[in-house]
Amino acid sequence: MSPVSIHIHCPNCDYTEEYTQPRISCPACGETNLDAQYKTENGKLPWPEALANRPRSMWRYKELLPLRDPSHIVSMGEGATPLIHCENLGAMLGLKHLYVKDERQGPTGSFKDRQASLAISALKELGVNEMVVASTGNVAIAYSAYAARSGVKLWVFTISSVPVEKMREVTLYGTELVKVTGTYDQAKVVADRFAHSKGLFLDRGVKSIAAKESMKTLAFEIAEQLGEIYGPTKPDVPWRTPHWYIQAVSGGLGPVGVLKGFRELEQFGLSEGVPKVAGIQSSGCDPMVRAFHNNLEDAPPILQPKTRIATVATGSPGLAYKLLRHEMLEHGGTFESVSDDDAYRALKTVAQLEGISVEPATALAFAGLFKMARARMFDPDEIVVVNCSGHTFPVEKHILGSDIGQEMDVSSAAQAEIPTEGLLSALEEVDTRVGQVVVIEDDEGASTLMARILQAHGVQHVHQAFDGQSGIDLVNQVHPDLIILDLMMPNIDGFGVLDRLKADETLRNVPVVVVTAKDLTNDERSRLSGQVQSLLSKGSFIDDTILQDLLNEKLR
Ligand SMILES: *Cc1c(COP(=O)(O)O)cnc(C)c1O
Ligand SMILES: [Zn+2]
Q1: Ligand 1 pocket mutation, candidates 138, 286, 387, criterion most atoms within 8 A of CB
Q2: Pocket mutation for ligand 1, best pick of 78, 102, 103, 111 (most atoms within 8 Å of C-beta)
Q3: What's the confidence (pLDDT) of residue 1?
Q4: Residue 311: what pLDDT?
């Protein structure tokens, strides 16, 4: 069948053996961090040609996955997720090539489906039928589903801060769930003891071969998809590596596997180089960020994580940090932290601008993206891929509360024949969003984007004018609560519009936010000073906190 030979290699003592089973440790020295290595006789894979007719799942890439017999595959179509171009967010951040790898679309709604599919398949092959895993939520759900499907009995050890909706899903699949009161690192120790005492197989996360290997398929898919979008890297290199890979990290397994994936693509001549990785953590549990910025080889553990986002509450990152730091020092990349509140805000922005609803852990990655864009860490032409790692269906109540939506009782309408008039005015009352905003901007795309952002922030009517004169006419007509004004426009420019507004008594006090594409001269700045509420630069992130504050202040 496949001409690929798979070996297990120990990076500690160089022990190598042909792959026959997923070993837990090196038979020679006991090292638990083992790697799978792949070779073919001519140094080539039958890709991309052979992929065309395979089913859409991560198992399309079976040559580089450690399983001997494909009949052991436990699959529900995991992987093969879309790479979605985010034009609105990209325009806000000044990134033309911003993509989301939409892992929400996996069978259980997170990228842990890849790991579960490979790990459970490999255990089936090994003849294991009962196992133990510690998890902060998504591994528990994914493993539960795949274990149920393949008849493996699963024990999950988790922490009490995991949302109850997630726990319910775990038990629905028939998993034995143990909630440990303590930190995730403590739960891992308890799971280890339990597995040991019962003689059960313990899945070791980042240290397990299956886990790391499964995450490679993210790299394979991203490179293949970018090759389709942008064309081959070179005539004989069909796929493409992005410049950045951004992910919220807990144990750090995802990026470790993704980097290994890009390495292997390079080995087989399918793509070139590895992306810069940005690992985003919550500031309440950011051991990797602290260690990285203090230039430490090892990350001292955070003993009492203070984040409400249980998915990423690994206080003791261990090995993954070392591996990732090494890569970052060599190829670029960074660890950054953002607050839980930053994540919740980003969650709403992404939902309202792109229609993509993510879980709070995933929102950390977006908040990190925003932070890095503000700090100008990206070149505008770089290809940036964000791992949209999990869906929001179990979204925590503290983000939106339970008092959502409005009640409207029309049950009596049929009999009582409410006059249409009354119904219309009742409908009018349902619309409690705020105010009128006029956007004066000659670039239609930019104008539409701003209109969307404003609507996402609860503005009721956004009126658009595409040059200075019609802007002034429109303002006279609707008397808005806020004006968003571009400076560079044909006929009357932004300065001219401002002069006319300030000369008109009825319009003088309408707040104006100036949006500009260029750096202003001192002279221009002083012309604006005292005349405008705020100055935002186009192409960089239209800061949603500034906007939110303005809208709250001026319109409510
Ligand atoms: C597991 C998980 C993470 C963290 O991934 P690691 O690579 O293991 O650090 C982030 N987001 C979501 C939604 C996850 O399920
Ligand atoms: Zn060894």
Answers
A1: 138
A2: 111
A3: 43
A4: 86
CA-proximal residue: ligand 1, atom 15 (nearest): 138
Find the residues whose C-beta lies inside 6 A of ligand 1.
Answer: 110, 112, 138, 248-254, 311-312, 359, 361-362, 389-390
Taken in order 19, 22, 23, 26, the sign of the CA dihedral is positive
Domains with residue ranges and CATH for the chain: 68-404 (3.40.50.1100), 433-555 (3.40.50.2300)
Question: On the CB side of 441, how many CA atoms lie within 13 Å of its CA?
Answer: 26
CA-closest residue to ligand 1 atom 2 = 311
User: What letter represents residue 373's amino acid?
Assistant: A
Lowest mean pLDDT among 100-109, 139-148, 545-554: 545-554
Report, in angstroms and rounded to the nearest whole number, the Rg of the chain calculated over CA atoms: 27
Alpha-carbon distances of 366 from 222, 244, 278, 342, rounded to whole Å? 18, 13, 11, 9
- How do residues 108-138 score in pLDDT, each as one tens digit? 999 999 999 999 999 999 899 999 999 988 9
Distance CA 125, CA 31 (A): 23
pLDDT digits 0-9 by tens, 175-209: 999 999 988 889 999 999 999 999 999 987 667 88
pTM value is 0.87
**What are the structure tokens assigned to 340, written together?**
């839980």
* CB burial string 410-435: b at 16+ within 10 A, e below: eeeeeeeeeeeeeeeeeeeeeeeebb
**pLDDT bucket at 446, cuts 50 / 70 / 90:** confident
* pLDDT at residue 432 is higher than 70: no
Cα of 165 vs centre of ligand 1, distance in Å, is 18
User: 130 CA to middle of ligand 1, Å?
Assistant: 24
